[in-house]
Design goal:
Number of strands: 0
Keywords: Cell membrane, Membrane, Transmembrane, Transmembrane helix
Radius of gyration: 20 Å
Shape: globular
Membrane topology: Multi-pass membrane protein
Main location: membrane
Largest sheet: none
Number of domains: 1
Structural class: mainly alpha
Pfam families: Polysacc_synt
Protein name: Polysaccharide biosynthesis protein
Length: 341
């Protein structure tokens, strides 16, 4: 049994680790060909994507995992859980399309560049499918399948970015369009692979179930909203008091610091379905506490290692990052604090 759990943990970790490696390759490639100012402009647009994503789910994605072992009809469960996110995506898309020129002017300083806004609208829908379908795979504890899809998403983004750069583009559109198109294409693949979950045969809108999901998800949504505010305030303040160049340098440092998230993602991918299964099996609270203490110790250890290695990372990224080691240190402290709450 321990060998089986260890194997699942390794397979669940494979996706985040390889995905992070792909991202680690993507960062120096983009920072080599794109100026810090253009990188900063792209990061501000993708920050809006993060904000929209926070509001899409209303915590129903987490509520879905909570109810997974409680509901017999799991296809009906996931379809009911996706109803409100799709409604919120529709509202967000209508707002984005109505104010497309103003949003482009505000974020990109070019009111005629509305293609990224249109792609963002499509992306809001594809992200919902991606989130819930990957959660379904994760709850089924199909570790290898989950990791393959996770890696595929990262590879799709990298490939599209490279194609756009080979076409001669050397500005923020490389990152913005590359990220959005890559995610959409990868999500289409996941949707096709999980198309059985889209069958509306025997579907019934269960208002009581949706209310139950909302009751569980609302506190989580509030927590995620507060965490998102912490995560985005820094770049918005830089946008107000500084310039896109500084935002680009800071975002690069932040992405490097986010390597700490590999462990968090790897662990939670394995732990969430396991924790709910343990809950149903009435496992002792001491077992949960042991896991919590162990992962906290591991995060502290990795935090110290990454902090000591900050001077090594600047070799692979902007040379100007050498005078911005403070960015990396601050990013690392914030990342460590948020993931140990």
């Amino acid at each position: 049994m321990k060998s089986k759990r260890g194997k699942k943990l390794i397979f669940f970790s494979l996706g985040p680790v390889v995905g992070a490696a792909v991202s680690f390759i993507t960062i120096p490639i983009t920072t080599f060909f794109i100026s810090p100012a253009e990188y900063g402009k792209a990061s501000m647009f993708l920050l809006v994507q993060t904000i929209i994503t926070t509001f899409l789910y209303f915590g129903l994605d987490q509520a879905y995992t909570r109810e997974y072992y409680e509901q017999k009809d799991r296809k009906n469960l996931i379809q009911n859980a996706m109803v409100l996110p799709f409604l919120s995506a529709t509202i967000a898309s209508l707002v984005l399309l109505t104010e497309a020129h103003q949003i482009s002017k505000w974020l990109l300083h070019d009111e005629n560049e509305i293609l990224p806004v249109m792609l963002l609208c499509i992306n809001t829908y594809s992200l919902i499918f991606e989130r819930f379908f990957l959660l379904s795979i994760r709850m089924e504890e199909k570790a290898l399948c989950y990791s393959i899809y996770t890696i595929f998403i990262r590879l799709a983004v990298l490939i599209v970015i490279l194609v756009i750069m080979l076409a001669g583009v050397r500005n923020y559109l490389v990152i913005v369009n590359g990220t959005l198109i890559g995610q959409i294409l990868a999500d289409l693949f996941i949707i096709i692979a999980c198309r059985q979950l889209l069958s509306i045969k025997n579907f019934r809108l269960d208002i009581n179930l949706i209310r139950k999901l909302c009751a569980f998800g609302l506190p989580i949504f509030i927590a995620f909203f507060i965490e998102t505010i912490f995560n985005i305030t820094d770049r918005f303040m830089l946008n107000v008091f500084s310039n896109y160049k500084e935002i680009g340098l800071y975002t690069t440092a932040l992405k490097i610091a986010s390597l700490l998230k590999i462990v968090q993602t790897s662990f939670t991918s394995f732990w969430i379905p396991t924790a709910y299964r343990w809950h149903n099996e009435n496992r002792s609270i001491s077992q949960f506490q042991l896991v919590s203490d162990s992962i906290t110790f591991l995060f502290c250890f990795l935090f110290i290692i990454l902090l000591l290695m900050k001077n090594i990372f600047r070799v692979f990224f902007y040379k100007r990052l050498s005078r911005n080691n403070l960015y990396f240190s601050i990013s690392l402290f914030s990342t460590h604090a948020l993931y140990n709450q």
